[in-house]
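[#protein-structures] MJ: dropping Olfactory receptor here for a structure pass
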Amino acid sequence: MINSTQVLYFTLSAYFDTGLFKYLHFIITMSLYICIVVTNVFLIVVICMHRSLHEPMYIFLCSLFMNELYGSTGLFPFLLIQILSDVHTVSASVCYLQIYCLHSFACVEFLNLAVMSYDRYVAICYPLQYNTCMTSNKIATLIALIWLYPMLINVIMTSLRSSLQLCGNIINKVYCDNFPIVRLACSDTTIINIYGLIATFCTICVPLTFIFFTYLKIFRICFSGSKQTRQKAVSTCTPHLASIMNFSLGVSFEIVQSRFNMSRLPNMLRIFLSLYFLTCQPLFNPLMYGLNLSKICVTCKSLITNVQHSY
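AK: finished. structure tokens for Olfactory receptor:
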């Protein structure tokens, strides 16, 4: 039996020998990471530099883009190292750090999307009270909640996980994840399982339920309101709804794959499904919001035009 103090590293068994194709995989992964960093940093800078975008909706968007950078940085450098490596091992401390980053990224994403749905609900259903309701203090409080709550619950999860006695060190994934490590435990996992269910309910089910009810009220107002109200709702809510559905779908893939035996699926498909919510969402959000929100789109075009004229 191997206890937790003896497990100094984990082996990631989902990797397989691709020969010289590993350099192609490295280039594709690196290009994707560069695109994610450039697009998200660009939109953060645009929002911060232009006073016309210093509104609650764009401040929450800025928080969302920062989270995409946070989650991507927790995954991509690790993947790039592993792709080129011949031995796919990772130290226990680095593995636990990656789990903390990726889980807190997912929690922040759901909470941020829930707060953005509340912002759209107030803006569309109570436009006259919007400025008095969404004060700078309230915005700061919501941003703090978005980031501090996931950090706290994941610190507790990390401490529970590190106290487990493990009977092995092989993880059948391309990155570190919580549930495969819990399944390696030879000690009682009742407490961490119960805590995991409560944390999942509070960080996924509660925000999604809140989003569902806010959009029920938004759609009710839209159908009974004027054409202008419907146009405003469509223009600001479409990218938000697309982002929610895309991320929820990706997380659902990962939860199903972690809990059930998916060995019948091809290895490449399992790797793609486990990476979908971590790789597609950080690129999907800046493209969706940058192209669909007219204010951001116009500001970006004017910024690019000014740069071209300066040369």
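MJ: nice. The CA atoms of residues 116 and 221 lie 18 Å apart.
AK: one more thing. The chain has eleven helices and three strands.
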